[in-house]
Design a protein that fits this description.
By secondary structure, this protein is an alpha/beta fold. It has eight helices and five strands, in the order βαβαβαβαβαααα. The chain folds into two domains: 115 residues, Rossmann fold (3-Layer(aba) Sandwich), CATH 3.40.50; 51 residues, Arc Repressor Mutant, subunit A, CATH 1.10.10.10. Helix 6 crosses helix 7 and helix 6 packs across helix 8.
Amino acid sequence: MARIVIVSQSDDSRTKLYRLLISSGYQVFRSCASGSELRRALSESEDCVVVMVGYTPDCKPDELLWDYKDSIQILLIAKQPVLENIESPEIFRLTMPASGQAVIGAVEMLSQLHRMKLPRRTGASKDIVDRAKAVLMKQKGLSEPEAHRTMQQYAMNHGMKMAEFAQRILDQSGG
C-alpha cells in the first residue's frame, strides 16, 4: 500500500483528513504543515500519495511533481481558482469542499496508480538488496528505512540499479 502524506497549513484540515483516512483503513505516513516538512517526509519514502489541502507557499504542486515525478501521486484539494492555476495534468484535483467519499475514492485510485508505476524486486535481487541493507544497518547503525534510502540515493546518483549497488556492498563486506 502506498504511504500517504498529508500536507496543509491548517491544523484543522490535517486533523480532519487524518481521521477520515485512518477511519477508512489507510495508514498515514506523515502529516505536514509546510513544504519543507513534506520534502523531508518524501526523502524518507519512495512510494507516497501526497494529499494536499490548498498548498503552502514553499511547495507548489507543479514544482513538487517535477521534483518527485516518478515516486509520488498528488491529490490537490482546493478552491476552484487555485485548481485552475495548476499546469500539470498528472495532478488529481478535487474542488473544496470535497466530500469524504470523493476524497477516499481519489486516494484509492491514486494508490492503485502508484502501485502500478513502482518497479518490484523479486527473487534473487530482493534477497541481495535485503542482505545489503542488513550489512549497512549493522556497520553504520542505520534503521531499515535509512539503509534503504542510502542505497537508493547512491544507486540513483550513480546511474545503477539498486540490486547492482547492493551486490557491491555484499562483495566489499565479504557477505
